[in-house]
């Protein structure tokens, strides 16, 4: 009764003895469990993709006498799987699965499973390497995330690819760290070095931005596609608040904007990009791609927007629609800028028509400045450095 009276008076109840130890233990337990869950999803996804690749290759081999059979198979399968399971089964992705199976042969996997069978496979399971492999068994082999294997497939030399895979496993590299090492030709530099051991030790040291949380692992675009989850994650609270306000502002203008989506992912080669807002303009009959930058406008931003427009024209635009237009919004502190990317339109007449129908850039700049001031004045949201 005394404890309840104190609590009612506003004083917190006394903590039980050893609470700090209990809390830290549970925090550690949940952290390990969540990371294990993310790794399990990745491992099963990768195992599934290897098995899909195997079936594609074997189907191709059976139909090898027919010209273009493989391309026809992938195109039809992509359409059917996308209709049933959602994203993640584009022709490019299926081709990656096919290449993945070819790069990681049955014999190599059987050898790996034989090594693991002594300690990791259940008793009596070691003979499974000689028959059809189950997903749970394949998951023991593919311990890197699928994003890492996609990056490894871009390495043409077999020895270099095996080196990067080995070092990624040994050093616990994140996909970002693996990508950096491949781009910096770490394999070639190590091969030419007189002190290879020192090079390997130095290469294993991660940078602070390489740390991967369970949330990062689940938000991997490939995982989101595999689980058919929405990909609507902003990288800062300020960015998210600005996008929400701008979305509502454009719809309230009543000038023909129809909302299509936000945080829309697209992949060009092996690189993922994301556009913040995607609208369809009813009067212009075109997609409007909007990208928000929390900094000053650069030439790279303009080039990237043209890349988005070209991709959208090829992959997102229907035959009876006009070419897409891009809108770059820069919310640099103390200064806002709105710029339309119209240079890629077929004619100057079309560009002029777009300028007449689309909202005035100065109006957008004013709204962006007012919105940012309002958000920051509340003191609830602080800007964070955006990573691309």
UniProtKB/TrEMBL annotation:
This is PDDEXK nuclease domain-containing protein. It holds the Pfam family DUF1016_N. Coiled coil: none annotated. InterPro entries: PD-DEXK-like_domain, tRNA_endonuc-like_dom_sf, YhcG_C, YhcG_N. Residues 26-189 form the YhcG N-terminal domain. Residues 216-368 form the YhcG PDDEXK nuclease domain. It comes from Paraburkholderia strydomiana. The lineage of its organism: Bacteria, Pseudomonadati, Pseudomonadota, Betaproteobacteria, Burkholderiales.
């Amino acid at each position: 009764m005394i404890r309840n009276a104190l609590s009612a008076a506003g004083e917190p109840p006394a903590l039980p003895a050893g609470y700090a130890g209990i809390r830290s233990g549970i925090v550690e337990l949940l952290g390990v469990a969540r990371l294990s869950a993310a790794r399990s999803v990745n491992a099963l996804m990768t195992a599934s993709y290897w098995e899909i690749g195997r079936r594609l290759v074997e189907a191709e081999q059976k139909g090898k006498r027919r010209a273009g059979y493989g391309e026809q198979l992938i195109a039809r399968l992509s359409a059917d799987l996308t209709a049933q399971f959602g994203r993640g089964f584009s022709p490019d992705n299926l081709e990656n699965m096919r290449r993945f199976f070819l790069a990681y042969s049955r014999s190599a996997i059987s050898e790996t499973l034989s090594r693991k069978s002594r300690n990791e496979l259940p008793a009596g399971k070691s003979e499974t390497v000689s028959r059809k492999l189950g997903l749970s068994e394949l998951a023991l082999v593919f311990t890197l995330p699928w994003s890492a294997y996609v990056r490894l497939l871009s390495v043409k030399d077999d020895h270099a690819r095996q080196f990067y895979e080995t070092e990624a496993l040994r050093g616990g590299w994140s996909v970002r760290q693996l990508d950096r090492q491949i781009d910096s030709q770490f394999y070639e530099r190590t091969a030419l070095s007189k002190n290879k051991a020192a090079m390997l030790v130095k290469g294993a040291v991660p940078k602070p931005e390489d740390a991967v949380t369970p949330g990062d692992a689940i938000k991997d675009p490939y995982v989101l596609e595999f689980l058919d989850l929405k990909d609507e994650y902003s990288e800062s609270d300020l960015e998210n608040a600005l996008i929400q306000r701008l979305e509502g502002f454009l719809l309230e203008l009543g000038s023909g904007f129809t909302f299509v989506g936000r945080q829309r992912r697209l992949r060009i080669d092996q690189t993922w990009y994301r556009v913040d807002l995607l609208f369809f303009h009813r009067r212009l009959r075109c997609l409007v791609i909007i990208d928000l930058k929390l900094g000053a406008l650069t030439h790279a931003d303009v080039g990237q927007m043209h890349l988005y427009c070209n991709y959208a024209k090829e992959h997102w635009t229907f035959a009876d629609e006009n070419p897409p237009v891009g809108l770059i919004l820069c919310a640099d502190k103390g200064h806002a800028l709105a710029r339309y990317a119209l240079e890629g339109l077929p004619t100057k007449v079309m560009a002029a028509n777009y300028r007449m129908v689309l909202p005035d850039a100065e109006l957008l700049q004013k709204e962006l400045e007012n919105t940012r001031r309002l958000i920051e004045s509340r003191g609830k949201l602080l800007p964070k450095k955006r990573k691309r």
